[in-house]
Amino acid sequence: MEPSTPTSPSPSNIIRLDLTSLTPSLIPTSSPTPILSPTPIQYHESPDEFVQGGITYVKRAIIARKDFRQGTSHIWKYGLQYIRDSDKKEVYYCHECRVGKSKQELFVINGTSRIRNHLEQKHQIDPQSGIKRKGSVRKSIIDQQKDGAASSIFFWKESVEKFKELLIRWIVYCHIAFFQLENQYFRELLLFLNPALLNHLPKAAKTIRSWVMNAFISKKQQLREDLHHSRSRISISFDLWTSPNPYAILGVVAMWIDTTGMRRVTALGMRRIYGEHTGENLGSVVLELLEEYDISGDQIGYFMLDNASANDTAVEFILKDLCPWMKSKQRRHRRLRCLGHVINLCCQAFLMGRNCEKYLAKLEKHHQRGDYTKVEELWKKFGCLGRLHNLVRYIRLTPQRREEFATIIIGGDLSQFDGLELIQNNSTRWNSWFYSITRALNVRERLELFSARHVPGKGSVGIANFKLDGQHWFELEKIELALKDFYAATLLSEGKKTSLADWFSTLDCLLREISETKDHYHDIHTEDDNNFTWKYLQGCADAAWLKCVEYYNNQQLNWQNRFPEDTDLPPAYYAAQILDPYRKWGWFRQEWVLHGDEEKKRWFENAQLAVKHLWETEYKGRYPVEIRLRNNQSDRHD
What we know:
Blueprint: E1 14-18, E2 35-36, E3 49-52, E4 55-59, H1 60-63, E5 79-84, E6 90-94, H2 95-99, H3 113-123, E7 133-134, H4 141-147, E8 152-156, H5 157-173, H6 184-193, H7 205-228, E9 234-242, E10 248-257, E11 263-272, H8 279-292, E12 300-305, H9 309-322, H10 328-333, E13 335-337, H11 339-352, H12 356-369, H13 372-379, H14 383-396, H15 399-406, H16 432-442, H17 444-453, H18 470-493, H19 503-527, H20 532-554, H21 572-578, H22 586-594, H23 598-619, H24 631-637
Parallel strand pairs: 9-12, 12-13
Antiparallel strand pairs: 1-8, 2-7, 3-4, 4-5, 5-6, 9-10, 10-11
Helix pairs in contact: 5-7, 8-9, 11-18, 11-20, 12-13, 16-18, 18-19, 19-20, 22-23
């Protein structure tokens, strides 16, 4: 076979540009020094009224004859103010553009910087002195690059499209304002790197906006096609968050296996939520998005959500609409619970007791009302945690107290902690208490010095009600040690490498650690019954253990008469674990059969029935399987 010979690119695949220089020099040339003209040019009288682009412009001096005053800036030597009839905004009319018979740019007057730049770049008017240059001047970088459009080079169309794609990606992912494409210095940078971009770089923000919108429409259509050809059911996750505006925003994410066998996770969209955050309201927004992507009831899989009761209602609302043939229990089987959220609830129970939801609701109510006195009073009920919360908030509340704390230097072996700021706990951010307590322990000496030296303002008790003594610091050390287990469990539940197959093993490990901590505190409290610290910590561990047991046991199937359709609990947790090639049934046999009691052995039997029932009712025969045999294997069976 003869080697192929290179061929010239066909005219349909290239763009021909005429450029004299690919790399314009930034070094000043030997052009003469600019000569400044001492007096401005005298212009003919401008029209009282003119029309451009179908819009009428009227000279401002005509409209406001009595109180009209011209500004003192030099820009008014080279132009006038006109009123745009469509919106009554003042615009700048350039005399130099009229003399040169150029189209008026008509800048809206909200400052002089853009007008000065226009006069300098287009008409060589010095921005400082306002005097027009005469004679030869050294050209700007952009002028040099424009003058380079005379030599002949080839520029592939594919390269232009690739540049366009990369530019859009940079703007979208880095949150770049569209008008930055008009920035002179950015354009100079790009054209310096490749002058061939001169005719392809958009000149206006409006152009790049249309590029982005067209790219979005194209990507959305491609995503719609990918979802349509999904090899698996499409599972959905959604959650609410508050934007800095603040708006209530619902983010919706889809998870599925594409035609290549790859697991895909893609955001379907973000929608603002109006009104109450009820399940029906959330569900209707999710339904609209699913309809936009043509996701039908046959394609819908599971819903992985946090434990908010509104999410139960939302899933019921969505599936009733998409899958009217489903029974109530079948719809409940499709609702899964976020493991990270379950771990966080167990952690909150450890910190705030069995009624933590009630206390958190009260705190949220007082925060929304702005009643921070009641917030502070409520936190006092939580011992060392409440004192630390109030102390950190007090220091961080004003810049003066932050500075006072920052000026406290310990030095020596603790110098690495001298520059650290305090971290405030946050009820909506996982592990925030762990971070807050760890930081407080690291800067303990600085906090103690602050508490001893600080002088509150007049009429304020300052930190007198929430100083931390030795007993409080001892309790914080023990709490931080226990929180490390929750922190580790949270990390195990995050990231792309984690799946539903890790649900049982992670929660089981956490339950074991909490149980050991509970027993440890119980033994010490028995030996020292009068010590409040161990009684308090034992109560914390008991609350966390009960919460963890609640969620762990709720995932066990307790079928009456062993009819799988009678259970309210999703068998997907079991199926995910036994379909993991590394685990299969091994973990269940190890933990529930070999080392479990009679109840756990029944769990194992029920899990086997659940997975079998799931296969027979929802997956068996759904996807055709082709069996291809080699010729010799086929002959062997004949």
